[in-house]
Amino acid sequence: MKTFGQLSFKRLVIVAYRLPFKIIKNGDADTAVQNAGGLVSAILSLSDKMNANAESNEKIIWIGTGEKQLGEENINPHFDLYPVEIPDEVNEKYYGGFCNDTIWPLFHYFPSITTYDKSYFEAYEQANQLFFKKVKDIILPGDFIWVHHYQLFLLPSLIRNSIPGVNIGFFLHIPFPSSELFRMLPNNWREAILNGLLGSDLIGFHTNDYTQHFLRSVKRTLGLEIQQNYIHLENRIVKADAFPIGIDYDKFHNACSITEVVKEKRNLKKILSDRKLIFSVDRLDYSKGLLNRLKSYERFLEKYPSWHEKAIFNMVVVPSRDTIDRYIELKKEIEATVGRINGKYSNISWRPIIYQYKSLTFNELVALYDISFVGLITPLRDGMNLVAKEYIACQQENFGVLILSELAGAAVELNESILITPNDIEATSDAIFTALEMRESEREAKVIKMQKRLKNYDVFTWAADFFSQAEEVKEMQQKLKVNYLNFKTKNEIINTYK
């Protein structure tokens, strides 16, 4: 695997739905603040590392939706920002419609609430064209174009058809569903999505399962030849592989001992007294299993009354999409469930659940990770879930126990955690008890194993691995004249890159 200094591309061009910053108006002054999300955090950490290792002072190019002002000011020394303008009437059907009402539920295995609207897909095509026009105006020879996420499935082929020799990578941050589920999309939609992705040289997923789901869909829908994760097109090859995104491990681990976080932990400990803290943080979404989590904790309180007044569950829900009816109803149901459980079990000196609907600062988050005795991360389906990795990275005070849904991509790497099925309320309630009762020596051994793994494959290793493999694919494409080489020769060349 090449280091950042060994990579051959001249500029990195990120294309994602949103720019990494947004403008907040504060009286007469405008302030640029970082957008939330794992991708933004990962790339911002990556930019510091790449800038430190680069011989030139080339900035990372980032193309995405955002205020026009972001493209006119020097917001960050490591980035040049290029806003994409999408008319509101198009964006409503593109992002609010096809992305959030079609792709998101279907790819998270909620087919019953998936919407199939022809006008949504037409808006999706139109928006991808707008992104393409912006990309085409900006890219230069030698650029590496890294397209991210489900909002831009069609973009790689649009770029490829216009600029055949460009190096394109694509990364999907949510699950790719089974081929049976993917085939619930109308045939022309799924063909467009797959052909769009195949405009890339390298397509990345978080886990091998997602990769294999994609490859089966390509084979069943398009009938293309596939060998060892390589897809053979008429005049080139495309690789699909797993790249489990990491975190900036040192940033989280070392933050536990900075002055501001130590002060925050001290204040929290005073509030908790000798009670054990169970902690979870998620944005508001039906895929996160928030109601099942509450029901599991309620069952724990029913089954294990010896833990009454000895444990507190701090459930933080970060605001997201709360103008959409389904999310409004979910928020109401969460609040009603919290109220019911607290009403049933609380007394004048103890509430079993501390519920917060808010965003946390970095220092608050690290402090809560570190002092909590149990991390309760139980999504119904999740591409990776970086919260689980952040939680483990921050374990220094108690060597806390992670209870993790086996349906999160992170479960593949964090298999020393207590893995549960989020729909199994009984087993999850027992897992909470097991975690609280676990011996310190066992907790410590599990955490140390996971921390070592996360440190070895952090966000920087993830990116360097992706870039290195993208360059290998380009080298293979130069050697492979697919129309002229025989089957055996192709296999031999592919095997040299395994």
Provide a compact summary of the structure.
The chain is of the alpha/beta class. It has 17 helices and 17 strands.
Radius of gyration: 23 Å
Poorly predicted spans = 482-488
Q: What order do the strands of the largest sheet run in, or round the barrel if closed?
A: 5-4-1-6-7-8-11-10-9
Q: What's the number of helices?
A: 17
The dominant shape is: globular
Walk me through the structure.
Helix content is 46%, strand content 18%. With 498 residues, it is an alpha/beta fold. Strands 5-4-1-6-7-8-11-10-9 form a 9-stranded mixed β-sheet, sandwiched between helices. Helix 2 crosses helix 3, helix 3 crosses helix 4 and helix 6 crosses helix 7. It is globular and about 70 Å long. It starts with 10 loop residues before the first strand and ends with a helix.
Can you lay out the helices and strands and say which pair or pack?
Blueprint: E1 11-18, E2 21-26, E3 29-34, H1 38-53, E4 60-65, E5 79-84, H2 88-107, H3 118-138, E6 143-148, H4 155-162, E7 167-171, H5 179-182, H6 187-197, E8 202-205, H7 208-222, E9 225-227, E10 230-232, E11 237-242, H8 249-255, H9 259-272, E12 276-283, H10 290-303, E13 311-318, H11 325-345, E14 353-357, H12 362-371, E15 374-377, H13 386-393, E16 401-405, E17 418-420, H14 425-437, H15 440-456, H16 459-479, H17 487-495
Parallel strand pairs: 1-4, 1-6, 4-5, 6-7, 7-8, 8-11, 12-13, 12-15, 13-14, 15-16, 16-17
Antiparallel strand pairs: 2-3, 9-10, 10-11
Helix pairs in contact: 2-3, 3-4, 6-7, 9-12, 10-11, 10-14
